[in-house]
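Need a sequence for this fold. Nothing fancy.
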């Protein structure tokens, strides 16, 4: 029987591996506080990040830091979003929907090695994901096109 965790248990487990500052843009942290933003994290996405970090890759993963602040959740004040919306067209992304992250992998693992390992161990994923191909970082998101456990895409 699969153990079902409560939302609080899931978010507590997520905090073992990531800080709010890593997963959310500075605007979100400034508005809601470093602990208050956890309510924005969809539970299925938190479970997915835990599985990728703890169960599949088992290496440290860095999302936002002091130099890069838009690799996690992006709000309407983030420059990437402003640049896209200035084109007078709708802008949606997994980052603005809080179900997409770009990670730099630590401990010597490359993004390509990580993508291969995720594919090899995809049965450990609790939900379907997308992986961006041919980039130097690991982009994972929760857009589900119902095309299998993992969908690879190339933004190019």
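Here you go.
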């Amino acid at each position: 029987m699969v153990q079902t965790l409560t939302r609080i248990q899931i978010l507590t487990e997520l905090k073992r591996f990531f800080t709010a500052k890593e997963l959310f843009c500075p605007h979100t942290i400034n508005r809601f506080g470093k602990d208050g933003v956890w309510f924005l994290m969809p539970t299925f996405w938190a479970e997915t990040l835990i599985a990728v970090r703890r169960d599949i890759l088992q290496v440290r993963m860095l999302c936002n830091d002091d130099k890069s602040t838009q690799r996690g959740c992006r709000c309407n004040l983030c420059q990437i979003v402003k640049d896209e919306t200035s084109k007078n067209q709708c802008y949606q992304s997994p980052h603005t929907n809080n179900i997409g992250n770009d990670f730099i992998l630590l401990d010597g693992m490359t993004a390509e090695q990580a993508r291969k390992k995720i594919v090899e161990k995809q049965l450990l994923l609790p939900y379907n994901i997308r992986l961006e191909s041919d980039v130097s970082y690991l982009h994972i998101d929760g857009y589900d096109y119902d095309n299998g456990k993992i969908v690879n895409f190339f933004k190019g």
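For context: The beta strands are 61-62, 100-105, 129-132, 138-141, 150-153.
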